[in-house]
Amino acid sequence: MKRNLLLVICLFVLAQAAWAFDPFTVRDIRVEGIQRIEAGTVFSYLPVKVGETMTDEKASQAIRALFGTGFFRDVRLEVDRNVLVVVVEERPAIASIDFVGMKEFDKEQVKKGLRDVGFQEGRTFDRAQLDQAEKEVKRQYLTRGMYGVVVTTTVTPLDRNRVGINFGIDEGEVAKIRSINIVGNRSYAERDLLALFVLRTPGWFTWYTKNDQYSRQKLQGDLENLRSYFMNRGYLDFNIDSTQVSITPDKRDIYITVNISEGEKYTISGVKIGGDPIVPEEELRKLIALRPGDPFSREKLSETSKNIVDRLGNDGYAFANASAVPDVDRDKRSVAFTFMVDAGRRVYVRRINIGGNTRTRDEVIRREMRQLEGGFYDASKLQLSKQRIDRTGYFAEVEVETPPVTGTTDQVDVAVRVKEKPTGAIMMGIGFSSADKLILQAGVSQSNIFGSGNTLSAQVNSGSYSRVLSMSFTQPYYTVDGVSRGFDIYNRKVDANVLALGHYTTNALGAGIRYGVPMSETDTIGMGLSAENTKLGLFPDSPLRLLNFENLYGNDYSFIIGTAGWTRDTRDSVIWTTRGNLQRLSAEVTMPVGSLRYYKTAYEHQWFYPISQTFTLMLRGDVGVGDGLSGKPLPFFKNYYAGGVSSVRGYNTSSLGPRDPTDNSTQGGNRRLVGNAELLFPMPGSGSDRSVRLGAFVDGGQVFAPGEKIALSDLRFAGGLSLAWNSPVGPLKFSIAKPLNEKSGDNIQRLQFTLGQVF
Q: Domain 348-420 maps to which CATH number in 3.10.20.310, 3.40.710.10, 3.30.565.10, 3.40.50.1360?
């Protein structure tokens, strides 16, 4: 009783002290105690102005408003001769944030995470926010499996009402997964199921991939992979009953147990199409991936729904839906599906909005769009538009979305968002390649000059094998119909002795013009005309075949070259290709006015096929045929060559083919046959980074001299691993290969690489 009475008395006294004034007219307002906060900020929160009447109610409102800002530790209102005095005590500001003992993370990256919870330098210090910041730091460590981390915060007062925040961190040891167990599996061995998991116990490469460190996100992905594995093999009732994750008291070892119920295996008894499909049912049936008698597959079920929706989307039904309704017969262990198709209303595209382009003009993106404003929505045209924008090579990412227009049921907008990548460079540096050894590079290039989509480049490259000075300009849209035009001028000096092609040099100076005419969305016809002058340099020890060529045709050649070609490109992306084809057919022939007469033709075909979401199979074939005209031979410096990073890896650059018996130099030939098979996959642990790609390959090829019979037994083969990296200093290609059928005299080079763009 006494305690309650004392509390009431104290509250009464405090209230009287706070509002111990009668209402009065405010003659002036004065703010005391501020150091960093502007007086105007305080005035803006006061419910009374000069000349108005101040009351206890308004005083209470002022106190609550000023405390609510979070800027002040204490607020008092006083009256001095009708002057309202606002006395405040500011909270200190955060002057600095530092981390001691942090090795696992970049400090700036952690500071960025703290900003997301409202804790950063310059903000008002709040003890509650400091607790949140400490939890955020611990959370980031937990995502790396470092459960033993200890975070200690220290607040140091500084001058001018500021504080310094120090996070002392004892990172402890990383907890590793010691065991993953699957309980309840009957149809498949545990080791086969664990092979589906990204998470694993420590192994040879887990020091790099970190997959032996527990991650809830990775575990959820692994469980979904496990679920898909069973449900794609007929186990309709498969279920993950429970998942236990335990850690030892010393927080170093983690044990994971997954309990599953397989259920029974079901087969497909029938597939029907219902609802209002709009398009003929026969056409939709061709899109069904499920077949009666096959095991149930959730993947094929989803694929069928997507195929139907995409087909309706091609006719403008952007919001179509195809729901699979199951009819399960548990006695016969079979299931039938009826795809209920709801096309919805036909949709128009109201507006196409471009975003993310800060340098590139809108027209450069819009001219690649095949979906038009005001037209019916067409999913296939949107996909084609995305691919065409991607193929320009100006963007690192391309995203296309179709948000509905508010207030309508038959309109959408198309939002195209791009992420630009650097398309220009001033380059002065050093590159390396296994063929050219040291390469000195200098030049300037811009493949999207002034954001116009045009390309201008001037390059100087100096290596032990070749020296190149070139300049080129290309307009991909010389006409509004997409006809391209380009100009080239170059000077190329080659010392063939470096690659054991014979002791000779060539110095070629040329210039040309070229055009490209689009015949369809994927096909382009090219043509061009160029003039070239080549000077041949021979030496007393040059092979006899070269000396004889000089005696017959001299050492200074001028000729005009006509070129023609056809390209078909159906690749889904040039940034990260997973499916599609690239075909090139080219021909060049010298005009009758030149001192040399010859022709060369080549055909290249690349085929990409996605084996899974991770692995892509690439097959490539390259065939070249050439010969002389008007009784003249194909010049030896125009011969075909094979071997090296871009053809048959594992063999030295241009080392395959016939040899000169006098000096064992590679002669080249007038026919080339090269094939490559490569399994492409991302670098383990790289996540969504698309700058690095690995491959396992088998290459084969050979060059044949005029009159020599083409025999597959003469082909050379090699197998190995490759790496392609778009590094900050330039594209890098690296391969390590082992020849599979090398013969005596072959020039082997197991490790090959190119760093920096070689022109």
A: 3.10.20.310
Q: How many Å apart are CA 167 and CA 100, to the nearest integer?
A: 6
Fold held by 267-342 = Ubiquitin-like (UB roll) (3.10.20)
Does the reported pTM lie above 0.85? Answer: no
Q: What whole-number distance in Å separates Cα of residue 581 and Cα of residue 611?
A: 15
Q: How many CB atoms are located within 10 Å of the residue 70 CB?
A: 12
Helical segments of 332-378, H only: 362-366
User: Torsions phi, psi of 701, nearest 5?
Assistant: 175, 170
Q: What was the pLDDT predicted at 683?
A: 81
Q: Which parts of the chain register pLDDT below 70?
A: 1-21, 423-445, 461-466, 575, 685-690, 727-731, 754-759
* Beta carbons of 443 and 418 less than 8 angstroms apart: no
Pick the CATH number of 176-261 from 3.20.20.70, 3.40.1260.10, 3.10.20.310, 3.90.550.10: 3.10.20.310
Measuring CA to CA, which residue among 53, 84, 90 is closest to residue 71? 90
CB 606 within 8 A of CB 584: no
Angle between helices 107-115 and 127-142 (to 10 degrees): 130
**Which tokens is 43 given?**
């005035």
Q: Scanning the structure block, which residue is given the tokens 């470092």? A: 146
Q: How far from 408 is each of 47, 283, 379, 627, CA to CA, in Å?
A: 44, 30, 19, 66
